Amino acid sequence: MPDLTAAQHVLRTTFGFDAFRPGQAEIVEAVLAGEDVLAVMPTGSGKSLCYQLPALMGDGLTLVVSPLISLMRNQVAQLSAYGIQAASLNSTNDPAENRDILDRIDAGALKLLYIAPERLAKSDTLNRLARAGISLLAVDEAHCISQWGHDFRPEYLTLGTIRQSLPELRIVALTATADKATRADIQEKLFPATPRVFVHGFDRPNLSLAMRAKSSARKQIAAFVKAHRGQSGIVYCNSRRQTEDLAEALTAAGTPTLHYHAGMDPELRNRHQERFLQEDGVVIAATVAFGMGIDKPDVRFVAHAGLPKNIESYYQEIGRAGRDGLPADTLALYGLDDIRLRRTQIEDSDASPEQKRVEKQRLNALVALCEAPRCRRQTLLAYFGETAEPCGNCDLCIDGVEVIDGTIAAQKALSAMVRTGERFGTEHLVNILCGEETEAIAKFGHDRLPTFGVGREHSRNEWRSIFRQLYAAGVISLDIAGYGRWEMTALGRDILKGQAGLELRKDRLRPAREKADRSASRASAPVLDEADEPLFSALKSLRTEIARERGVPAYVIFPDRTLIDLAQRKPRSMGALDGVYGIGEAKREQYGRQFLDAIAEALGDGAAPEGSRAAS
């Protein structure tokens, strides 16, 4: 059985990485040992490698289930660039291409096959693949199988029956966004027995987090994008019309910006996506139809022109920035109109009452993040069950926020919770605090509580904000999968007893005077000395030229981290490419000479500078 030492050799020679990223090694080791695995890892942490590497080292075919054809194509292009035999069986291939792929499967010539879940569910496909000897099933975006996930897809439910047809099949399921309820649902639907579960944190420390109340969304977004001129970025919009208007306005202001939404002509939509992938410095204004299939590592910023759908969607969408591990900026704008729209969309949807209730709680958690009185990263990670110190890399840590002593208000809210057995949600508790004599208040006799009406100094909206801020501050916790009831944390008990105090934000959803956006320029290609910038630009131009010739995204040739490493090391020979980040044997043979020639042309003839071997 292959071991981790052998895996590290393949990691270096094939993928060009000297070391595993945090969390990868133990997952790879478990898969190599034949265990079923559920892995939750942050976007950009290298989830794909956790099944790609074992696939190369084992016998048989690894089947990869992916939700989007564009994602499959990009993965296959990347693997092919590494010299790995991979293919994607999908409906957009011409018949001859699919026949060729099936012939390669029958001949045992493929190591990885990407396929959509609905195609895999067909009996003829499954029977043919079973004869080919499938050794591993990798389920990408595994949260799609769960009704609690933010992107539930019914076709994923068919995956649970595949294991019954192939009982010896090992499964590795991977996702970046799965809270406790979603993880439990994935296990129940996908695995016949409890798998090894790895939850490697949700923190993306390279992302700068910022949220702003709306004043003029177009002007706010334009200022943010202007500060990132020359960099690739995504601006998420809440309507198709807004993507077109914003793209036009940003282009007129000097930033090449494309629009993208589901209502476009498919050919034009694909052209816009390909240009964004292949060129540097292009911005795309898009609805949420854009993103899941995009694996572009050098996106330097993500902005939301309006409130995202929920906190999981927000986390996944900002996660498309900085996948290369380099600094990237995020900005989300929000307003009362956004919140009303989201609540109306939930109410008008065809979801079950139970699912609507869950979606409302998730929206409330996102609003709590917007109104957070402390470090945004602490609030965001707390939602996923993690604790953290203040990050120093969000707008609240950097700019601060005007606060007031909220200890008494917190004690009133906590008292109402405790006296009602911690069994109720926001609206019932607000009714108690404001002294509203509702039917439910009378039914439970809560109008006789000492806390009934003690909070009349605050409006109902202010109390809602206070509850969201208490949640954001870690004073109370929310039962998302249950009935949205609030529970008191250890910090909440200390506040209720007078052993701790609490500050709350003075501003709520009223647009505040805009502060200078000191976070806006932090993502500009760091780690490079000014003297290396011309060489870096020359290498990017060469990368773009090769990508266009080959019809693949630029990062398939080399990611920015490789170009930065080349610009710093300035290698002058093929041997000197050994140890450069992301250059394995296949890529060295394919592109090494062209990039060495570009370096020589930019610098002139001279001895290659000495440099230490870089770690991944």
Automatic annotation (TrEMBL):
Gene Ontology terms for molecular function: 3'-5' DNA helicase activity; ATP binding; DNA binding; four-way junction helicase activity; hydrolase activity; metal ion binding
One of the record's GO cellular component terms: replisome
E.C. no: 5.6.2.4
Broadest EC class assigned to this enzyme: isomerase
Domain Helicase C-terminal as annotated: residue spans: 217-364
A biological-process GO annotation: DNA replication
Reaction equation(s) it catalyzes: Couples ATP hydrolysis with the unwinding of duplex DNA by translocating in the 3'-5' direction
Pfam families: DEAD, Helicase_C, HRDC, RecQ_Zn_bind, RQC
Signal peptide extent: none
Domain Helicase ATP-binding: 28-196
Domain HRDC stretches: 529-609
Keywords: ATP-binding, DNA damage, DNA recombination, DNA repair, DNA-binding, Helicase, Hydrolase, Isomerase, Metal-binding, Nucleotide-binding, Zinc
InterPro entries according to UniProt: DEAD/DEAH_box_helicase_dom, DNA_helicase_ATP-dep_RecQ, DNA_helicase_ATP-dep_RecQ_bac, Helicase_ATP-bd, Helicase_C-like, HRDC-like_sf, HRDC_dom, HRDC_dom_sf
Name of the featured protein: DNA helicase RecQ
Species for this entry: Kaustia mangrovi
